[in-house]
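To the wet lab folks,

You asked to see what we're planning to order before we commit. Fair enough. Below is the target structure as tokens, and below that is the sequence we designed to fit it. If anything looks off to you, flag it before the synthesis order goes out.
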């Protein structure tokens, strides 16, 4: 476990969704000793506080309705979820899978393994966010290249330009307006689409 990762756990905003019993108190105390900033909520809330970075969520079949409502409220970038389970029955396992949990803590809760599960879950979450960011970047690049290719094809057909001449035309327009070439290409494509829209019958 890297020193940098352990350092990142200090001050981590952790929400514990667990009944206010002895195990819940133990969990909160141990997380605070690790250096996390801990808050608690019970019963399962309809939505999470905006600043929750990690959520330790008690999962059981009897809480299914509340958990499903909570999961539906999560935004596009949900926090790191760690499931707390007391039984390994199919119903509980199904909810764990639906929650998107990055780690599972089994009851009765013990101090051994909590730090490891927290660190691993957070590391996996951060890696997923990095991969999603790269995927979005690649998608934007691919869409931009497709738009640029279509814009050049439009210019080649409408102005009898070669591909290189069409590329240079778009480049000059982008430099003159101080915008990306993709923006000029998108404008060309949009104009062409508007011009080729079928007219409504009178």
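Sequence we intend to order:
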């Amino acid at each position: 476990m890297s020193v940098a990762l352990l350092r990142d756990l200090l001050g981590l905003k952790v929400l514990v969704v667990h009944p206010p019993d002895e195990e819940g108190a133990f969990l909160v105390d141990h997380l605070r000793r690790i250096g996390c900033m801990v808050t608690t909520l019970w019963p399962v809330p309809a939505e999470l506080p905006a600043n929750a970075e990690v959520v330790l969520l008690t999962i059981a079949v009897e809480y299914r309705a509340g958990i499903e409502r909570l999961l539906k409220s999560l935004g596009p970038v949900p926090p790191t979820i760690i499931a707390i389970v007391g039984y390994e029955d199919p119903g509980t396992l199904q909810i764990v899978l639906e929650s998107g949990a990055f780690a599972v803590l089994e009851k009765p809760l013990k101090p051994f393994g909590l730090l490891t599960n927290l660190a691993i879950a957070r590391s996996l979450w951060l890696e997923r966010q990095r991969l999603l960011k790269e995927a979005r970047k690649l998608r934007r690049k691919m869409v931009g290249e497709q738009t640029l290719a279509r814009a050049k094809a439009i210019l080649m057909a409408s102005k009898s330009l070669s591909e290189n001449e069409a590329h240079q035309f778009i480049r000059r327009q982008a430099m003159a307006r101080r915008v990306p070439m993709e923006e000029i290409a998108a404008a060309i494509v949009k104009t062409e689409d508007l011009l080729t829209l079928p007219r409504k019958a009178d």
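Structural context that might help your review: The chain is about 55% helix and 15% strand. The CA atoms of residues 22 and 28 lie 10 Å apart.

Thanks,
Computational group
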